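Section 5.1 Outputs to date
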Amino acid sequence: MMNIRQPKTVRSVARELLSRAGQLRRILLIYCGLLLASRLVTTGLNVGLDSMMSRSGGLGNLGTRSMLSTLQALLPLANTLVMLVLDLGLLAAMLRISRGQYTSPQTLRTGLARFFPMLRLILLQIPIYLALGVLAMYAALFFVTPLSNAAMELLTPIVTAGASSQQVMDMLLTDEAFLAGFLQAIIPMYIIVLVLLLGLMIPVSYRLGMAKLVILDDPRAGAFRAVSESLKMTRRNCMAFFKLDLSFWWYYLLTLLVSVLSMAESFLPLSEAMGWLLYGAALLLQTLVYYFLRPRLEVSRCLIYNAIRPKPQSSGVAIGNIFQM
């Protein structure tokens, strides 16, 4: 039996299974092609909307600009939903490969078949992570008083004088000296909040990490059942997943580099041409990472999931005969 607490063993089994997956290249080409097309279409629409808004000047076109601005704000959401469908399909394919089952590009359709249960799972998880964020901020503000004194010394005279929250916000927006002092004063609190947030979210994310696989594996599973099953499976196995993720540090480092390159124009004084060049490099690097490296990580995680699944696998959406064509 495979030792799931030995990342090297898990990665070795995953590599062998991937080498035997006959249609893996077709699956990855389709997945990466759709992912790249989605990003390019979203970027093209965003540029087009920017151009249309720049030509819609004057009060008479205020409604048009408002509509275009709303459409532009919805583009990231639409792209996120498309990526969710694609990622679910890829994960379903990796789950089948981890079990040595026949896998074809048809398996990518699982993303559509299980989209709404997965969406409900995400909507269930959002309040959990928001609650952790509020808890971290509360702890930083009210329990770490020595490091919050500087900020409180700035705000206390203003609040004592009867200023409303809106007036405080107006001061932050209009008084550059006050804003600079406030930002410098809250740096320690930001660091504390970040540390606390990571300390809370990392364990919780590992406890909930198997829920999406349960959604794919069991067609009867809803959001609450998936979370419950994930909590049961990871009760004593979080460290196995954590050690596996540590062994894939290079994958996460490259993913971080993709994010930095794609957002470089936001925090660096770059020319428009250089900004587009870095964005193109980010898209190319992301495509290569997903094609060559991501399957190893996903199949390795699926192998641990298979080992700790408490009951026999069902003939569910991800593994049923409908996708064995």
